[in-house]
Amino acid sequence: MKKPIDIVNPPTAERAVLVAHAGRERGAIDLSLDELALLADTAGATVLDRIVQRRGTVHPATFIGKGKLEEVKDRAQQLEAVVTIFDDDLSPAQVRNLEKALGTKVIDRSELILDIFARRARTREARLQVELAQLEYSLPRLTGMWKHLERQAGGIGTRGPGETQLETDRRLVGERIARLKRDLAAVERERETQRRKRRREFRAALVGYTNAGKSTLFNALTKSTVFVENRLFATLDATTRQMVSPERVTALLTDTVGFIRKLPHHLVASFRSTLTEATEADVLVQVVDASDPDFRRQMTAVDRVLDELLEEPRPMLLVFNKADRLGDPELEAGLRSEFPGCHVISARTGRGLAALRADIWERAAERTSRARQAVHSTEDRT
Asked: What is the CATH number of the domain that holds 40?
């Protein structure tokens, strides 16, 4: 008799309500909530409603005011939501107070982004980086995670005499963080060896807002097949491939993780070794989704992260992608007028890619020429 097959139902999507505080103009908060909805969808949640606190200051205990808190609670109960997602970072005390008042799980934007990174991390390095960021985020939030914090847990073993559960957890998390940093340092030494071999070659790095089409462009320019998906943060690991011109001019092109507004600080710090591929490039190719009405704010968010990462400015090549979605030729003309020297392309259709390739190869040839002149100059002096 055959053993019956266990049928495992796929996990159901968590039902979510989004909440934001309108400290910005209405258009900006709507766009931010659109992005939060995309993040929630990427994390596997089903967004049921959005609620905005449009007046007043941020409440220190619950982030939103008492009246709005009741509104969120009633709406979550009506829709049978199990999670409430806030568009801004919450303090540990605010999370505890909100969960008690709302009766749902409460997460903020940073925690949502960290969850997405944890789901999408594939390589050992990415998993180490995400775990480090999650632990550093959770360390100050351990208070209140247990119901038995006041209980003393003495005795031999991992806990010292009189040590509370909270102190134990903090110590264990601290030890794990230290170990992860050591492991990442070892990975970074391996990366540095690889980078040292590449420093003689011209390097270009694709940077930009998440879902701007960097990986699609990377595949089109290098004839590669890296993973592409129309969702946020499809790429977490840096990938490098070679571009070779008909004249045998070579350039190394690197695809990098996308940026986003309010990118958690711990995440930027943890992925610093991966992003070093970009910071050491000869030219940064900033890819912008030209079809997104919020692309200027996205460019500002990218610039802020790059300012944090770069010790000194790098040459920038501005590329407006998804031109096939613009529809109106005047919009393209407006981009070229506002951003002189930019490329307006479609990575999906191939439009404008020949000129972009030629620009990258021209820069690579110039660097090679300068390097040769420097060598000849040195030889002449000797």
From this structure: 3.40.50.11060
- Per the rule left: phi > 0, alpha: psi between -120 and 50, beta: everything else, 63 is left
Residues contacting 157, CB < 8 A, separation 6+: none
How many whole angstroms separate alpha carbon 150 and alpha carbon 167?
Answer: 11
Going across the sheet that includes 45-53, the strands are 45-53, 14-21, 83-86, 105-108
**Which of residues 115, 141, 160 is at a domain's end?**
115
Co-location of 259 and 376 in the same domain: yes
Q: What is the pLDDT of residues 30-76, one digit of tens each?
A: 888 999 999 999 889 999 999 999 877 889 999 999 999 999 999 99
Rounded Cα gap, residues 72 and 101, in angstroms: 10
The range of the structural domain enclosing residue 216 comes to 200-381
- Phi/psi at 253 (nearest 5 deg)? -115, 130
Look up the pTM and report it: 0.78
